Amino acid sequence: MPTVLDSLMAVLALFPYFLEALVLFFLGKFVFDLTTPGIRDDREVAESRNPAFGVFWGGYMGGLALAIAGALGSLGPSLLDNVIDLATSGLAAIVLLRLSMTIGQSLVLRGFDVSKEIVEDRNLGAGFAFAGLFLASGLVIAGVMSGRSDSWATMALDIAVYWAAGQALLAASWLAYRLMTGYNVHLAIGEGNNAAAGLSLGGFFVAMGLILRAALTNAGSDLGPELLISLVVGVAGILLLVLARFLTTLVLLPRLHLADEVSKKGNLAAGAVSATTYIAVALLLGSLVTSQLQ
Fold this sequence. Notes:
Blueprint (H helix, E strand, L loop, with lengths): L3 H10 L1 H21 L5 H7 L3 H22 L6 H30 L5 H7 L3 H22 L6 H30 L3 H6 L4 H22 L6 H30 L5 H6 L4 H26 L1
Helix pairs in contact: 2-4, 2-5, 4-5, 4-7, 5-7, 5-8, 7-8, 7-10, 8-10, 8-11, 10-11, 10-13, 11-13
C-alpha cells in the first residue's frame, strides 16, 4: 500500500513535465502573438474591454492547452525520452493548432476576418464560433498526440494523416450544421452579430471535437483500419448531433421554435441550451467509443 511519502514522490516526479508543458504553453502564446500582428491582446482586454476578443483568445488558449495535454498522456519510464518526446509533440501541437486556425478561417468560417469581426466589430457571436472551433481543433490534436509510433518518420506521418482527417471531419460537420439549422448561420453571425447563433455553433464544434478526440485516441500506425474507425465514428457523431438538434426541439423545449429563438430573437439562453445539448450527446458517445473501441 503506497504511503504518503510515496505519493508525494510520485507527484514530484511529474513536476519536470509540468514545467516543460508550461514552457510549451507560453511558447504557443508567443506564436499566436507573432502570427497575429494586427491584434494586441493587452489593448483588447484592458483598454477596449472587448468581450469578443476575450472569448476568441480564451478559446485559442484552451485549445492550445488541450493540444499540449494530449502529448502528456503517452509518457514512458525514461525521463530523457519523455522530455524529448514531449518537446517534439508539443511543438507539433503548437504548429498544428495555428494551422487549424488558418484552415478554420479559410474553409470552415470562410469570410470571417478576425481583425474585422473580433477587433473592429466586437462580434461576440464570431468570438463564440472561433472559440468553439479552436477548442475542437485542440481536442482533435489531443487525440492525435495520444498515439504511439514505431519511429520518428512514422510518427510524423501518423500525426499529419490523423490531423488532416480530423480537420476534414470538422469541415464536414460544419456543412451538416448549416443544413440542419434552418437559417443562414453565416449571415446571422457575420452581419447580425448574433451571439446566440455563435454560441450554438461553438458548442457544436466543441461537441464534434470531443467525438473526434475519442475516435483518434491511441490510434496506431496501421492507418487503414484506424482511419476507417475514425471515419465511422465521425460520421455517426455528425448524425447523432443532428438528431440532438431535433430532440432538443421536440423533448427539451417542445413549446419553442429553437431556430427562431436563436436566429431571429438572438436568445442567448436558447443558444446555451443548444450548445450544451450537443456537448452532452458528444460526452456520452465519446465515453462509449473510448471504453468499447480503444
